[in-house]
Amino acid sequence: MHKRLIIEAFKKGESSRKKLGEKKPSLVSIAEDLSNYILAEEGFLLGERSFRDYKNEAEKLMNSEVDINIKQYKVIVGLCRYLGYDSFEDFTSLNDLEKNDIEINEFNKGSKFHDFLKEHKITLIVCGLLLIGFVVFQSINRQRWMVWQDDHYLEVGFDAKKYNLGQLKLYNSDRIKNFKKITPNCNTEFFDTQGNVKIWYGKNNEKELEYFTALGLHPETGKTLDPITTYMIKKYICHDF
Q1: Distances from the Cα of 235 to the Cα of 97, 183, 196, 229, 232, angstroms
Q2: pLDDT given at position 41
Q3: pLDDT (tens digit, 9 = 90+) per residue, 85-113?
């Protein structure tokens, strides 16, 4: 059921971007959306390349009984929630029920019910598309968003232009409270009393080093930040550290 999960997630990601005016969403952009969603909702970072690899593997095995194996449990849970399910068990049971319904419909071919479906096929399709559009619209409007502003994330309302530019992110209270850009100096606390890193760094679009108070993706480049090291501190921040 993992291969169906990843394929359905990509389908929803593509549909969401098309609803926002993007004619032909790229796999990279959809995978980045999924990666950002899992990071925001589950606190787990999995790069967009891994999501694309899972999708490609699932498509190759689509006509096979063999399933793929999504190794990261938080990714499985996050994708289920992205699709509107409470858990993977919920996703599995409901999709098994859908499969049984298809088999029942096949058995009932030639019945009056089947004739009704055939006669009103176009009307039912149109109604279904309208319902899907309404659900997507409602989902977008209920979702909370944030955008990077100078040195911190700020909660904002939905903006299609910013979303298409990749500036709009799914709201994450931890990012809002704890993820800040700082200018460190010799008095900055780089490590806690147990030696754990408290500062992360990465380069912006101008290739300049910038420093942040939590692990995550660089707000401009989308690349994963690196933990500070004694070498980096002595070379770029405090020579006497």
Answers
A1: 61, 15, 20, 10, 5
A2: 84
A3: 887 887 777 766 444 444 434 444 445 55
DSSP string, 175-218: HHHH-BEE---TTS--B-TT--B--EEEE-TTS-EEEESSSSB-
Residues with Cβ within 8 Å of residue 212, at least 6 apart in sequence: 179, 180, 181, 182, 199, 200, 201, 202, 218, 225
In this prediction the pTM is: 0.46
Q: Tally the C-alpha atoms within 13 A of residue 177's C-alpha that lie toward its C-beta.
A: 4
Plot region of 217 (φ>0 → left; ψ -120 to 50 → alpha; else → beta): beta
pLDDT the model gives residue 226: 94
- Chain segment 119-157, per-residue pLDDT in tens: 767 776 777 777 776 555 555 556 788 999 999 999 998
Which residue is it, tokens 């993706």? 217
The average confidence (pLDDT) of the chain is: 83
Classify each residue of 215-226 as buried b or exposed e, where b means 16 or more C-beta atoms within 10 Å of its C-beta: bbbbbeeeeebe
Neighbours of 53 (CB within 10 A): 14
Instruction: Read off the DSSP letter of residue 65.
Output: S
SS3 147: strand
